[in-house]
Amino acid sequence: MDIQEIIKQQVSSHGVVLYMKGTPQSPMCGFSAAVVQILNASGMKEFFSVNVLESDAIRQGIKDYANWPTIPQLYVKGEFIGGADILREMYESGELQKTLQAAGVMQAA
What we know:
This protein is an alpha+beta fold.
């Protein structure tokens, strides 16, 4: 299976997928840490994460997959949502919480 197929399988088989540097318990960059905090504050305590530092192929492959140059990247129900700045704006406006609820991956508060 090539890297694009692996990524497609990951984003389609999990409700919420975060490609990040490090892990949710131990983020290795400020942007990844910020997205984990945003997800937690939105009520998402559990989500599938991929540490891109463990694989150069995944690290480059995810950039190509979404045609998005930076990491972290968040996917909900297979759809690319955005990176740290977009997620921060979505959280502050309440749009992220609505997106997660509408996707059925999070209960309404």
